[in-house]
Amino acid sequence: STGRDAILRGSGAPNTAAVCILETPPLAPSLSSSPSSQPDTTSPVRGLARLIQLSPSLTLLDLTVTHLAPGTYRVTLRCTGDITRGSASLGDVYDGAEGDRDGVLGSLVVDDKGRGALVGEVEWRVWEVVGRGVCVERVSDDETDGGKKEEVVGVVARSAGVWENEKVVCGCSGKTVWEEREEMVGRGML
């Protein structure tokens, strides 16, 4: 409401935050033939999932996607972090070491602008999901879309908690966090 920009550089206690960059699978021929899956962009990145552990057994999931075909998508936690062939290499839905958890994290609706979001609580601890895959896959209706598979995938990685990240310049791009934010706004990602 002040009109000023702000960047949150981390939240939570140590070892209680994670992030997952969602992108088109690197070796997914079914996606390359679908015009809705390959919008006018050079980046394979289609979204981001952030996880913040709120208590010993409860984590907040904040997931956003962009540049996807309109429809309903299912979000699942998978057994492995191998994204090379999309959901085929991620393995089954991960229901915990004892099989007593729910690896279906929820569903989201992508609108006509290609954007969708899922925010909610999941009963996982951050350390249980780090290194595992996340798959956001379209719930298809074989009669209306010919059964085309549309999905984005990513690997959950540990993220900095509150004040754990003191950097001002990104080691990968050399840009400041403010320059990176401006670039994302320009791309319509924020």
For this structure, the quaternary state is single chain
- The number of helical elements comes to 5
The low-pLDDT segments are 29-40
Strands, count: 9
Secondary structure: helix percent: 10-25%
Residue-averaged pLDDT, rounded?
A: 81
Structural class, from secondary structure content?
Answer: alpha+beta
Tell me the overall shape: globular
* Cα separation of the termini: 17 Å
List the strand order in the largest sheet: 6-3-2-1-9
Give the C-alpha Rg: 17 Å
Strand content: 25-35%
Query: SSE order in H/E notation?
Result: EHEEEHEEHEHEEH
- Biggest sheet architecture: 5 strands, antiparallel
Commentary on this structure:
- With 190 residues, the protein is an alpha+beta fold.
- It is 14% helix and 32% strand.
- The chain is built from five helices and nine strands, in the order E-H-E-E-E-H-E-E-H-E-H-E-E-H.
- The protein has helices at residues 29-32, 87-90, 126-129, 142-145, 177-186, and strands at residues 17-23, 45-55, 58-65, 71-78, 104-110, 116-122, 133-138, 151-155, 157-158.
- A hairpin with a 2-residue loop joins strand 2 (45-55) and strand 3 (58-65).
